[in-house]
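Q: I'm teaching a short session on how sequence maps to structure, and I want students to see two examples side by side rather than one. Could you give me a first protein with its sequence written out and its structure tokens following it? Keep the formatting plain so it prints cleanly on a handout.
A: Of course. Example one:
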Amino acid sequence: MELLFLDESGRIDQGGLFALGGIAVRDTDWPELKELWQSTLNGASWPLDKEIKWHGIRTGEVPPPLADTVFAMLAVAPFTAYVALLDLELGPELEPVFFRTPEDVYATGLMFLAERFHHLLDAENDLGLIVVDSRFREDDQRLRRFFADLTKDGTPYMQLPRIVEGLFLGPSHYSIGLQCADLIVAMTANAERGPGQGRGYLKKVLPRFAVHPATGELDGVGLKRFPEAVPRPREHHRLF
């Protein structure tokens, strides 16, 4: 069994860039990830029940030495990372059907990630669950309805039979997986927005991102930008 933990970065209603992404962890690798996370925090005398968030790293609430150590740990941790970067300025102009409402934007990011996760499950001949950071009760209900349709009908491009039906939602401060997802997606979004703290961390963690199994290409697989200002040839658009 594989678990895909997802979180988001950015505000859909404020324009700019919205990112959705996180980490896929095999069930048998979970004990190693948990041990790495807890030993890293224990080594810095950081309480295990105190959340590590990108916002805390940016504001200095998380001491810089601990932030560096956490990302060094993530760079060797047993997971596969995925991030979808949605351009809220170009999107309504170039791909309006995917950007009509905030719900459509979130659903578009979730669709891209579900497709990529399913390719991983195919390669591993396994099943998977998706866990998302809980937002608000009404938003969570909309997400569950959308995901139920997604697992029943598939995406416009593929069916998703290996993803177990139902979306699992929970508060991130109780979840190591969701805290890792927050760090991965927010770091990547920060790096994409311009020079900043995220770029240095992203260089370290890039080996954890999914790549095309035949070409080793990162773009379009572990990192999905949508829409692209300069579209790539069709053969580069296809996943596998």
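Q: Perfect. Now a second example for contrast.
A: Example two:
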Amino acid sequence: MYVAQPIKWTERGVVMLDQRRLPGEEISYTYTTYQEVAKAIREMVIRGAPAIGVAAAMGVAIGVQSSSAKSLQELRVEFPVILDTLAKTRPTAVDR
């Protein structure tokens, strides 16, 4: 039985199955920046709390991996921006 993978980490970037196109089409996109991952989450390319959490974690990893920071101190300044960008993407459910 074939089961499509909703998200995977590759050398090229984060590959997400566009769940908006299911079940009629199986189309995947590759995201190479944390901003692209954030946009994909906001636009609900990927759905379901566990998958969104994995996508956000991969977005953080890409953000750190592609950071232009030359020192730990510089990364400490950039890191909260990456986290905040991804934290604000949550398309459903509101914590109260």
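Q: What should students look for in example two?
A: Point them to this: The chain has three helices and three strands. Also worth mentioning: The beta strands are 7-9, 14-17, 28-31.
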